[in-house]
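Q: My labmate handed me this sequence with no annotations at all. I'd like to see what the chain might look like in three dimensions before we decide whether it's worth expressing. Could you predict it?
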Amino acid sequence: MQLTQLTGSRREIGVGHGRAHAGLIRSSIAVYDRLFQDFVGLDWGQARQEAQRFGAMIEARFPAILEEMAGIAEGAGVDTADILTLNCRSEISLTQASGGCSAFALAREGHQWLAQNWDWRADQLDNVVALRIEGDDAPPLVSIGEAGMVAKIGMNAHGIGVCLNAIRSRTCGEGLPIHVALRRILESPDMAGALAVAEQDRVCSPAHFLVAGAGGEALGLEVHPGEPGRLPPRGGVVTHTNHLCAREVTCRVEDFPRVDSRPRLARLDALLDELPDDVAVNEGRLFEILADHHGHPLSICRHFNPDQPAEERMETLFGVVMDLDARRLILRHGKPCESKTSLEVTLPAA
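A: Here is what I predict for the chain of 350 residues:
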């Protein structure tokens, strides 16, 4: 996979994104057209109408990003409403669709690590993009996500990083759509700024954001329209899969996790507990955790499962490891157990 470099104003960043990935953006639209029909019975036109209600929330909390979305649409030759719909895809399908992502943060020997597998439908594998964005009004950042979307998983030059776990829930209220909130976090100068996205801007549907910063800071945030749940590190470790854990959230928000979420979390905890204290941690060791097949095919490294209905089959589409103190991100596109090459990105410290 190649890294797409985007610079300039919001509009210029958007147009560059749209031009570079016009074909993949159209392919993403086709994937979500099918997904919305599979999960919530909406065709693309109906999904576009559904997405419009989130535009006002974005306008109130992060208006600059709407300029970038319009630029993406211009560059790709699609409607701005199409790009808004892609960026609200979690909110449109949140009642049914839930991926199988596994994420963890680890502080060890002066390095704050952040890592995860992103599990989703296999027809979105080729629409994954790596963006390095250097805007006029925000810190340099790198985001690994889906073509046409403003952010997903990544880090910035201040050493702030974020991972995402989907939460299946019927809750939806006022706040930023999940992927817009992730971009807001990636533009934060510090952990306080990242936390403000969850506490002040709020996130309109439930998800887990694993936020960490250079210098050994990490916090799990179970976001939703209300006060976020907080999961502090235990022995320098935070782990999460696809169910809610914080008591202050579980008493107010109902989630519907798939059966493998809790076993994967237990396996993550066990693997991190087994890391010897006297052995140096590097990205190779952490990718070994992401490549774990315990409980296959519903394992941390998730494979094709013919026993599931076709529309619900999720596979690991990429694994990512970040060393936030070094401002270094390493991506393995595809399953970590199979991927032979890595994309490595380093940002200058801000």
